[in-house]
Amino acid sequence: MVQNPPKTDGIIGKYEGDGSALIQVLLELQRENQWLSRDVLRMVSERLRVPLVQVYHVATFYKAFNLVPRGRHAVVVCLGTACQIRGAPRLLDKVTQSLKIRPGETSKDLRFSLDTVNCLGCCALGPVMVIDGEYHSGPSTKEIEQIIAACK
Amino acid sequence: MPRLNSATDLKGLRRDLFTRRDPNKPCVTICSGTGCHAYGSEKVAEAFIREIQKNGLQGKVDIRRTGCHGFCEKGTIVIISPEEICYLRVKPDDVPEVVSTTLVGGKVLERLLFKDDDGRKIVHEGEIPFYKHQSRIVFGNNKLIDPKSIDDYIALGGYGALAKILFEMSPEQTLDEIKKSGLRGRGGGGFPTGTKWETTRNAPGEIKYVIVNCDEGDPGAYGDRSLMEGNPHSVLEGLIIGAYAIGSHQGFVYVRQEYPLAVENLSIALNQAREYGLLGENILGSGFDFDVKVHCGAGAFVSGESSALMTAIEGKVGEPRPKYIRTAVSGIWERPSNLNNVKTWATVPVIINKGADWFAGIGTKGSKGTMIFSLVGKVNNTGLVEVPMGITLRDIIYKIGGGIREGKKFKGVQTGGPSGGVIPESLIDTPVDFDELSELGSMMGSGGMIVMDEDTCMVDIARYFLNFLTEESCGKCIPCREGIFQMLQILNRICEGEGKEGDIDLLEEIAEMVKDFSLCALGATAPNPVLSTIKYFREEYEAHIKTKRCPAFTCKKLMSYYIDPKKCQACMICRKNCPVDAIGGGKGLVHIVDQVKCTKCGTCFEVCPARFGAVTRLSGVRVPKPVPAGTKMIRERGE
Amino acid sequence: MGEVTLTIDGKEIKAKKGMMILEAAQSAGIHIPTLCHHEELTSYGACRLCTVEIIKGKKSRLVTSCTYPVEDGLVVKTESERVMKGRKILLELILARWHIDKAIELDHWPWTAKALLENYGLEQTRFQENTTMCILCGLCVRYCAEVKKANVLGFVGRGIKRQVVIYPELAVKVCPTCQGGKMGCSFVCPTGVIPNDFACIALYGSKKIPLAYPVREYDQDNIREILRSVGDS
């Protein structure tokens, strides 16, 4: 399936035939549709004139790209070094327990997607969890449950 | 915006901006870098707009949203000019009081000021110990500039260095000035910048490229981001100067897509520069053409390596290439390409403005100028610090960083990210210098400086970095892909209590091969965290292997939580908070941890009231047999 | 069209400018082990087995001979102590992925894997086994891209999760006629994993082809569920 055909078409059209723009095109498509379906990747391969193997290698090499649909609410836990020594692994445990999915996964009801990153750059707040762009510094299990319940 | 067609036009604009700006007009500066954004600086700014309107001060008080000020521990930072009153930890609810007390009433709001260890309150930013010991020659302008306004940058003297080299200096003279300054790359390699520029300039080929590396991948380092967000023009100016010196007409800026604010502010800056004629064709009427393309990263640490970055710009997977032929000679599309870090480029205008001799007067013999560090971890004052090279680690951690949090004991400081190593307390008086740090088995890197205390397990830190590198390795060459993976397996075993005799030797054996045989610097420096922690903290490794003990009580599988029946006051707090219901006992009955159910999460240890202190952590010793269930607790004396 | 003179293992050798050390050595009869190198394909530099020690002036460093161009006055040692020590560990790491007794002898290689390991006194590996049989040398991918110009095989993922996959919709068009139906890639594979594990035959539109469809790692069940719930078959 091709998500949002007119928008997708427009984005690819901007870089028609320019193989060196592969990463930029995929980033825009990812931003627009939240994930890259197989058909979209094939489209990119044809119109940018890049071998399909290269498109897939790029799409699976970089962490920014998802080949699977994402949940409505993005949950991110930072595992950067500063957060690590301030207890990020414990925070991650609490979050995975509450959401019942592991990093990289999406909940079956498509409500949440959980990811880890390697530094958000707000180390003074460590350990950090971000939900829908809101930063939370070292939330307790109770706080996590409250935040999750508020996300429909 | 009228196009500037000469150096005189630029001077005229600057004069114009100066006369239009009243230095005595009250101005509220709100730090709006990503760090303070996480603290809610947007809401603080909105509150100020509301309150200023409410008090009828619109038009009489300016509001300026700037980039990162550096004192990230105390965000959101607000500075009231012209008095330069510095308020810390400002929340939206504080704003009405700030406006009424300071803007209207003309008085200082004491409770938001910095308080030093003796309880003394400090009003002006420059006197706060965190800032006093710094030398913010590159980073200092962040607090004076709204990154979305090129006029702010020009009013402070911005693009003056560019005008100087375009009209008063030749490309060769510009190159010589940078060589004379002794500037070395601030991205990790520490390569002499002037030499790299010269190699690119002399390489055969008409078309040459200059590149800004803003792929900042070291976890815990965010100086590049704050510069790109807070003062993108300084980087751009440096880049154009470099392009002129090298003879390049096309530049690239590679920014991580995880830095959306940096991408946004950079794009705005580029457009504004083009409108003013400071970028594009015939810059300032000098005849020099140069333009810039922005390329976003997509989430790969390895793509920050210079040859990998260039491959990514070509649209391919960001895998490093062997550097037998320098990228300065054959880079993007096999053309000479000069790549430098954000901080390096931002330092260039400073050198041109103040002179190479002035710059070379700061720092040590081998490392000139200043360096921006991300001082993070178990330190009191987390933030971005800019210090002259040669300052000791002790001064950074104690004088600027304010020492270790919660009064704990300092154990080590990690520099250089995943390519660096840990420096122990015994070497804390080492001056910060490229070569000194390398000699200790670490490196300067991109500025990450992670402070660790007695609760940090060094074996776990080594394991953490190897885990990071296993995920970030591109996987092309065997030493890095397989070697690091196998080292990680060994460290996992050690941290889980299955270390065996000979593991340390095996780690060192693999490390040597990985260092020598890897294709790129990621692999070649990957063993550094392991080797440095073995060198300086060998006893910890041996404790983990021989006695199955984790001295820092971090490795879960080597720990047990035990409630001392003599101290337990049966308050039920730990029982209620245990996430897996592993604590038996009840009201008046001693609480007992079921060692089988226990997940070692540590919650009971955290919640047990300090005056009881009944929950203990055990490692390397057998857990005492539990008292029979239903044992009554012993009341504490005096009750 | 210049010529340079370099010394390899004490022997003075003349080589054409632009040649790599590996070629120069081979032409002089000096043997350097390789795994990911093939005369018909561009140099890849991934296996690092061909690493040699070069000495320029006072400095010595280790470089891969397949990607380092010859230089006048270069001194090369193909079996120095540093090189031999490292190669042994490298082979042990490869052994963790590739069961030596399953390797087949391929006649266009100048040596067999078994002989190589005997040379270094290796029978087993000290490392945790991660047997996939594929050592990611990239020969099949490069062969399909550079010789066949078909790009049916490719890499996905990075780091330890890197693997070679095949694209069914391209395979059905190309593979049946490649090398008279014998799969050219199987001739260049040094471990013999093609067509063994690789040729798990699948049906793709009623045609039989080698298997493996690229999909992002993590939990396979999770992925399948999610794709189903958005109607992506």
Features:
heterotrimer; B: 639 residues; alpha/beta; Glutaredoxin; Rossmann fold; Ubiquitin-like (UB roll); 5-stranded mixed sheet; 4-stranded mixed sheet; 25 helices; globular; C: 233 residues; alpha+beta; 2 domains; two-stranded antiparallel ribbon; 7 helices; 9 strands; 18% strand
Describe the protein.
- The complex is a heterotrimer of chains A (152), B (639) and C (233).
- Chain A has a four-stranded mixed beta sheet, covered by helices on one side.
- Chain A contains seven helices and four strands; from the N terminus they run ααααβααβββα.
- Chain A is an alpha+beta fold and 152 residues long.
- The mean pLDDT of chain A is 88.
- Helix content of chain A is 45%, strand content 13%.
- Chain B is α/β, with parallel strands linked by helices.
- Chain B has five domains: 25-81 and 85-123, Glutaredoxin, CATH 3.40.30.10; 144-360, NADH-ubiquinone oxidoreductase 51kDa subunit (Rossmann fold, 3-Layer(aba) Sandwich); 370-453, Roll (Ubiquitin-like (UB roll)); 458-546, NADH-ubiquinone oxidoreductase 51kDa subunit, iron-sulphur binding domain (de novo design (two linked rop proteins)), CATH 1.20.1440.230; 559-619, Alpha-Beta Plaits (2-Layer Sandwich).
- In chain B, 38% of the residues lie in helices and 15% in strands.
- Chain B has 25 helices and 19 strands.
- The longest helix of chain B is centred in the C-terminal third of the chain and has 18 residues, at 478-495.
